[in-house]
Amino acid sequence: MDLRSLRYFVAVAQTLNIGRAASNLHISQPPLTRQIQQLEADLGVTLFIRNTRGVTLTDAGALLLKESQNILNLVEQAADHVRSAGQGRMGRMDIGIFGSGTLNLIPRIIADFHESNPEVSIVLHTMTRTEQIEALLQRRILVGFNRFVSPTTDIAREVMLTEKMYVALHESDSLASRDVVTISDLEQRSFVMFPTGSRPNFIDRVIDWCRDAGFAPHVSQEVGDAVTAVALVSAHLGICIVPQSTTIMRIPKITYRPLVGGKDIAVDLSCIYRKGEISPILREFLRSVRSTIKARPQGIAP
Question: How confident is the model at residue 255 (pLDDT cuts 50, 70, 90)?
Fold first, then answer.
C-alpha cells in the first residue's frame, strides 16, 4: 500500500464511480480498476461492492477512507512544512543581541520578521561582541547585532545604520537648557561610561572624541550597559554620551541633547553572520532586515 494507491482509492470512494474517478485522476479506467483490486488483495479485504450503478463502500472501505484522508492530509502538511523550512519560513532562529541596540531598531527588525514568518521560533541571547563572534563560529547562533565589528575571513558584516550621538544630562544641569551640546562643553563634567567588557568598545570611541576636542575625560563610573549608565546620570553621578537609540528610554530627571562639535561623532550598528552560511532561515531573515531598513530610511529616530 503506497500513497498513489491511497489517492486512487480516495478518488473512487468519494465519487463511488470508477469511471468518474478515472476521469478526475486523468487516467483510463482499466489501470484504476487494477490498482483498486491490488489494494484489496494487499489488505485482504473487500473495499467496494460493485453494482450496475457503480460501487458502494464496505465497512472496511469506509474505515480506510477515513484513515486515508488523515494520512494524505498529514503527508501534505509535512510537504508544506518542508517547503516552508526550505524557504526559511519554519525552524529556529538563534540571535545574539546586546545593550543599547535592543532599545529600538533590533526589536523592530525581529517584529517585522516574526510577522511575516510566524512559524519560525526566535530565541534571543544577550551577548557581548566577542561572545557573539564565538557563538557564530561555533554555530550556536545564526546571526548577531553589534557595533565595532570588522569583517573577517569567517564573519560577514552588514551595516544597518549609523546613529547620531546624544548626551544624557540631569535636568538640573546647565547644559540641559541648550538645544545642542558640543564635546568641548563636556570638558569639566564627570563621565559615566559603558559598556565594561572586551575592548575596544564604545568607551574607547568616547575617549577618542574627547581627546580630539583637546581633553581627557574624567570617568566617574564604568558600567555594563546604557540603562544603568543613564540611571546613574539621574542620580547626579555625571553625564553620559549615548547612541540615539538610547534616547527612547524615559528615566525621571533625564534630558537628552544632540552632541555636535567634531567629525565622525556617530556609531554604526551592524548585523553579523557566518560567511558562506546557506541556511534558508538566515537568507529570509537578511531579506527581512534589508526590507525593514529600507522602509525606515531615517533610521531609528525616537
Answer: very high
The pLDDT tens digits for 260-273 are 976 678 999 999 99
| Whether domain 162-267 has CATH 2.30.30.240 | no
C-alpha cell, 15: 465519487
Q: Where are the alpha helices (DSSP H) in 55-98?
A: 59-86
Q: Where do the structural domains in the chain lie, given as residue ranges?
A: 3-86, 93-160+271-295, 162-267
How far apart are the C-alpha atoms of 125 and 250, rounded to whole Å?
25
User: Which CATH number is 3-86's, of 3.40.920.10, 1.10.10.10, 1.10.3470.10, 1.10.540.10?
Assistant: 1.10.10.10
Model pTM greater than 0.85? no
Question: CA 85 to CA 265: how far, in whole Å?
Answer: 42
List pLDDT tens digits, range 196-230. Answer: 877 778 999 999 999 999 999 999 999 988 999 99
Residue 29, number of CB atoms within 10 A of its CB: 13
- In our burial notation (b when 16+ CB lie closer than 10 A, e otherwise), range 245-279 reads bbbebeeeebbbbbbeeeeebebebbbbbbeeeeb
- φ, ψ for residue 123, nearest 5 deg: -120, 120
The CATH code for residues 93-160+271-295 is 3.40.190.10
Quick one: 71 exposed, middle or buried, by C-beta within 10 A (0-12, 13-18, 19+)? Answer: middle
Residue 244, SS3 per DSSP: helix
